[in-house]
Structure formats: structure tokens, C-alpha cells
Amino acid sequence: MAIIVRLDVMLARRKMSLSTLAAAVDITLANLSILKSDKAKAIRFSTLDAICQVLECQPGDLLEYVPDNGPAPPK
């Protein structure tokens, strides 16, 4: 996958738990966990907008493009 989700990094910076974010965004913890674990195939702009509002960040703070032939993302 060429798009890496950095939700865990932003949550750590904001000192917020996944369950707190899920409640604030009104999304299930299971769906947010899928996004955080980089297993999501898509995200709605409305969900991305809500996450960015709660975390006070930009979409680029959450998503990173890594070329397929680039270095492996850190785990």
C-alpha cells in the first residue's frame, strides 16, 4: 500500500486515546482501529474532516504517500 496512515502518531501527540477519538468523531472503535492499523482500503472525506477537527490537524498530518518501490514504513 502506498498510503500510510499516521493516526497513532497524531493520537500520541495529542495525548488522546483511540476510544476518546471514536466517541468524539462518532465512529465505531472497530472502524477507527482498522484505520489506525493501516488495514483500511478507503476513508470518507467526512470522516477525515471530523478526525482533523478533533485532533486539530491537517490531512497531511495523518496520511503519508510512500512510493511502492520506496523504503518500508516503520512499524
Give a brief rundown of this model.
With 75 residues, the chain is mostly helical. It contains 5 helices and 2 strands; from the N terminus they run βαααααβ.
Description:
The protein has 75 residues and is mainly alpha-helical. The chain has a single domain (3-65), classed as 434 Repressor (Amino-terminal Domain) (Orthogonal Bundle), CATH 1.10.260.40. It has five helices and two strands. A two-stranded antiparallel sheet has the order 1-2. The model has no long low-confidence stretch (mean pLDDT 90).
Features:
75 residues; mainly alpha; 434 Repressor (Amino-terminal Domain); two-stranded antiparallel sheet; 8% strand
Helix content: 40-55%
The total domain count is 1
Sequence stretches where pLDDT stays below 50 over 5 or more residues: none
- Calculate the terminal CA-CA distance, rounded to whole Å: 14 Å
Number of helices: 5
Organism: Hymenobacter jejuensis
Pfam family, one: HTH_26
Domain HTH cro/C1-type: 13-62
GO molecular function, one term: DNA binding
Q: How is the secondary structure organized here?
A:
Elements: E1 3-5, H1 7-14, H2 18-25, H3 29-36, H4 45-55, H5 59-62, E2 63-65
Antiparallel strand pairs: 1-2
GO molecular function: DNA binding
InterPro entries: Cro/C1-type_HTH, Lambda_DNA-bd_dom_sf
Protein name: Helix-turn-helix transcriptional regulator
